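Note to self: keep these together.
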Amino acid sequence: MTGKGPDTWAVPYYQHLEQPECEVDLDVMGGIICDSTAQLRRLAFFSGRPSRDFTGMPLRVIAYDDDQLPEDEGDLETYLEEKSKYSKFEQKNK
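Structure:
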């Protein structure tokens, strides 16, 4: 399906998934396709506490890999403050 052989991934587009092993293919696949060296995992939280404090708040995810981060602390702070680098996930209703 991906044209990259067995054990490959076709997933919806999220900015944090833009990795060297993956390529954006919005026209054909509608998201990102990754070769077999990429490991994609589902992230889920159950029974969070205190639930009332985080209800309705989106989860923001950023690519945070040591070999992709700036070495200078000031540049790292700038990288982490850049809102456009984050993928945003809305909470699902219970």
